[in-house]
Amino acid sequence: MNEIIKVTQDENGNSVVSGRDLHDFLEVQTQYTKWFDRMVDYGFTENTDFVAISQKRLTAQGNETTYTDHALTLDMAKEISMIQRTEKGKQARQYFIAVEKEFKKQYKLPQTPEEKLALTMQVTLRLDKRVGNLEKSIDEIQNKSEIDSDQRYKLWVARNKKAVEALGGKESNAYKDKALSRKTFRALEHSLKKKFVISRYEDLKKENFDEAIETINKWYPPYELQCEIEEMNAQGNLF
C-alpha cells in the first residue's frame, strides 16, 4: 500500500496523522489554522480526537519560529476527509480505511491455543524487558545518589586505619605528635576529596564508594609529609 499521508504512532500506541500533512494533501486553500478551527467546530474534542503539538522550523531568513500542528486520530482524519467533498478527500478517506484494515490484520486477536500461547509469551517477554529496564533505571538512580550513613562510617574507619598505618602505628612518635597526626589525617582526607571533587564525605556517590575505599587503601603521604613522619619516628621516645 502506497503511503500518501504519513501515519505514525503516539506514545500510547494510537495511530495518528499530522493535521498539516492532511491539510496539504487535501490541497485546501484556506490557511491551516483557520481551516482547522472550522473543522473542530464539527464536534471534535481536544485530547480525545486530536492533540495540539508545538513545532519549530527555520524561516527563509534563518530565524527560528514556532508553529502549531495537530495529531489527529484516524477517525477524525476520515471524517475531515469526508467533509471536504472533493476527490482528494475521498482518496484520503479510503486510504485511512485501508490503513486501519492493515493494522487490524497485523494485530488480530489470537484464535488457536498455539496463537494465544505465543501472544502470552510475547507479552511476558515485553513485561520482563520493561521490568528489567525499570530495575536498571532504579539501580542507576541509586548509584547516582550520595552514600548512606553505613558507607560514611566505613570510609571514616578506612581513613583512620590508613592514617595510623602511615604514621607508623599508635605507638609511634608521629602518631603521638598531635599536630603531625592531624596533618596526616587531613592530608589523606584532602587527597580523597580532591580525587572525587567533593567537599564532604556525604557528597560521595554510591557508584564511587568501592573506588574510594581502594583509593584510601593505596594512599601514601606526600613526600614532604613522609619525611616529617620518618624524622619524627627516627627520634628517641619523646613521650
Query: Which structural class is indicated by helix and strand composition?
Result: alpha+beta
Q: What's the end-to-end separation, in Å?
A: 95 Å
- Which word captures the global form? elongated
Which blocks of ≥5 consecutive residues have pLDDT under 50?
none
Rg calc? 35 Å
Strand order of the largest sheet: 1-2-4-3
Total beta strand runs: 4
How is this structure best summarized?
This protein is 59% helix and 11% strand. With 239 residues, the chain is α+β, with helices and mostly antiparallel strands.
What does this structure look like?
- This protein is of the alpha+beta class.
- The chain contains 10 helices and 4 strands; from the N terminus they run ββααββαααααααα.
- It has helices spanning about 20-25, 30-40, 75-85, 85-105, 115-145, 150-165, 175, 180-195, 210-215, 225-235, and strands at about 5-10, 15-20, 50-60, 65-75.
- It has a 4-stranded antiparallel β-sheet.
- The longest helix has about 30 residues, at about 115-145.
Core attributes:
59% helix, single chain, elongated, alpha+beta, 239 residues, 10 helices, four-stranded antiparallel β-sheet, 4 strands
Task: Itemize the secondary structure elements and their pairings.
Blueprint: E1 7-9, E2 15-18, H1 19-25, H2 32-40, E3 50-58, E4 64-73, H3 74-84, H4 87-106, H5 113-144, H6 149-167, H7 173-176, H8 178-196, H9 209-217, H10 223-234
Antiparallel strand pairs: 1-2, 2-4, 3-4
